[in-house]
Specification:
- The chain is an alpha+beta fold.
- 27% of the residues lie in helices and 16% in strands.
- A hairpin with a 2-residue loop joins strand 1 and strand 2.
- Helix 1 runs antiparallel to helix 2.
- The longest helix has 22 residues.
- It is globular and about 60 Å long.
- It starts with 6 loop residues before the first helix and ends in a 16-residue tail after the last strand.
Length: 198
Amino acid sequence: MLDTMKPSAKVIVGLVCGAVMVGLAVMTVPASAPLSAVASVAGGLTASLRSSVDVPATPSASAPVSDPYGPPEGYVDVGNGTFIPGGGFGDCAESAYIHMGSQNGEPITASLFGKLVDTGVREFAAGAPAFADDGRIATYTVAPGDSPVAIGDRFCIWNGLSLTTLNGIPGSTAIQPGQVLVLDPAAVPGFVFDYPYD
């Protein structure tokens, strides 16, 4: 975070941190301790802060220029200003992401970023997927005991809990065995997103 801050902001952060550290040092020294003990502890803490907050006056020509609006290191941009950790979780090489939102006052839409991968039946995600004509995973039929989070994990969906919202189900409503959930809106012809919280 400090790498993307302006030098003046770093100085302010350093001073505030120094003040907090001095306050904490004062609280840790017994009340009967001489004032010189407090000054010694506080001086050591602020000296270590000064050495860690030093900012070069001008950036080095060899220093890489970072994009303050791009994803942090180790994260990927899945669109619409959303970054998720790079790589997958569990058995997933990459993660997919369900996005729901609107722009410029338009109606709320839903889309899937990334590719769904079925990592196999597991506890709480034992239902069956169905495929679009082009072979993409499109929907999922809920089995008894299934949960949205486990279904998301099975299909490498970073925000698996969003499956209920994607399918027009309010968050407090349980999914039911036999219910067919859309996993990829673009793979289901005629899919209309019905945002459940309007």
